[in-house]
Amino acid sequence: MRDIEHEVLIIGGGVAGLVLALEVAERRPVTLLQPERDGQGASRWAQGGIAAVLSPDDDIEAHVADTLVAGDGLCDEAAVRFTVEQGPAAIAWLLSLGVPFTPDPDPAAGYPYHLTREGGHGARRIIHADDATGRAVVETLRRHVADHPAIRLRHDLTAIGLIADTAGQCRGARCLDEHGRVVELLAADTVLATGGASGLFRHTTSPDPACGEGMLMAAELGAELMNLEFQQFHPTCLYDPEGPPFLISEAVRGEGGRLLDLEGRRFMPEVDPRAELAPRDVVARAIDAEMQRGGGDHVWLDVRHLGEARIRHHFPTIHAHCLARGLDIAAAPIPVVPAAHYSCGGVATDLEGATTVPRLYAIGEVAGTGLHGANRMASNSLLECLAFARSCGRRLRHPRPASRAPLTPWQPGRTPIPREEIAEIRKALREEMSARVGIVRHDAGLATAARRLAELAERLAPRLDAAAPDAALASLWHALRLARLTVACARARRESRGLHFNPDCPVHGDPDPRPSRIRLADLDDD
């Protein structure tokens, strides 16, 4: 079934997609695909806050410098400066919408809202809504989106691919409705806001993480992907094998939380002079090494010395969540383990979100803007969502003539692939990525991962032409190819840099490093 032509189609309802919808809808009608599962996506689970230069004791140059250091020589400085400069205005805009950021009760404070500090930042510049910033921002934006007459929300559709025309332009998205029927949404401009690829790994910080579906949808149309090897692992996810994932915010360490080994010894000061406030890649590797040394499944994050009143004040959500799972963090240390958290690479874009495919844009975690380089600094992600969604919105307010080239043909199959087999292949994919493409990679492990992922693809590929359209199958096929592209990028980078750490080539290589660039055709030619 083919739907009517849409002006602007946004796929994904996290912070980036919601902000863009509000920016564009003042000039053009917007259709926003926000499947129910988006309510459990990464934006909602963001705890720490948004990094921005807000205090009179801070400045733009300091934020830029901290970001460049964290990115380990691979940031695009123009993208960094652009993003940081947008911060104050973006926060003022959120405040105007009513986002309930936490006020600072100190009458001597230079800024009316409380600012915390997180790893890699040289100043307190993280504005937050207690320890549930993502939820507060998403819920505020959703209210405004729901009330806007020019925004049409669709909760009943899941995108499984993009539509192209014979001129090589994106013309919308192919979706499935609640009954599994194909619905084609044609659009003048299409924007991906689908999230990252943490779901390629076994342990993640989100209960229902994206698996890079949007990245591969763009790649299928010929878009260039970049920096896929830089997958960030958050150092402190609650270790509870029997329960759902839960992130212990960077702000916990920012307020004085200490990492301890299983014997209760603090180990970060021996690793880095910044101790627990070192960038995430340093802290995650240190925890991984400590777990390997001690043979444990986790380490401890201790905040008991902060006192119960301060813990409850700064971290009410974390305290309540842990208490509901039988752990009083004011009385006992928190068991934590690194978990896949954020994709620093993605679909290559310019400063307005434009990809290398005409009429296709990408914003948020799905995009590779150059901001993060080899490692994302804490709380720069929501800032990136705001800065690039608003920039993309300014571009899309002024439409160009729509393409009238014929659409490329597509014919779905009819044979279902059993859900059990889809789940089995996805589990094997995640096990392979976690075992060999995680915090520490080795040449031999990457070669094994490349071979085994290729075998999984060879098992599935011959059956796809005849397969009936299925959201789970489409997600798996996107994830499997993105995993192979990620391994290819990791094998090609013959150095250790930021989040990519390979003891077989442990030092920085090229003194003037370049982002890794790859297309789906490169995998096909392999």
TrEMBL record:
Entry's localization field: Cytoplasm
Domain FAD-dependent oxidoreductase 2 FAD-binding, first and last residues per copy: 8-382
KW Flavoprotein (keyword) present: yes
InterPro entries in the record: FAD-dep_OxRdtase_2_FAD-bd, FAD/NAD-bd_sf, Fum_R/Succ_DH_flav-like_C_sf, Fum_Rdtase/Succ_DH_flav-like_C, NadB, Succ_DH/fumarate_Rdtase_cat_sf
Alphabetized Gene3D superfamilies for the sequence: FAD/NAD(P)-binding domain (3.50.50.60), Fumarate reductase/succinate dehydrogenase flavoprotein-like, C-terminal domain (1.20.58.100), Succinate dehydrogenase/fumarate reductase flavoprotein, catalytic domain (3.90.700.10)
Residue stretches making up the Fumarate reductase/succinate dehydrogenase flavoprotein-like C-terminal domain: 426-510
Highest taxon above the source species: Bacteria
Keyword Flavoprotein attached: yes
GO MF, any single term: L-aspartate oxidase activity
Entry EC number(s): 1.4.3.16
Alphabetized UniProt keyword annotations: FAD, Flavoprotein, Oxidoreductase, Pyridine nucleotide biosynthesis
Reaction catalyzed: L-aspartate + O2 = iminosuccinate + H2O2
Biochemical pathway: Cofactor biosynthesis; NAD(+) biosynthesis; iminoaspartate from L-aspartate (oxidase route): step 1/1
Cofactors demanded by this protein: FAD
Family: Belongs to the FAD-dependent oxidoreductase 2 family. NadB subfamily.
Function: Catalyzes the oxidation of L-aspartate to iminoaspartate.
Name of the molecule in the record: L-aspartate oxidase
Species the sequence originates in: Halomonas koreensis
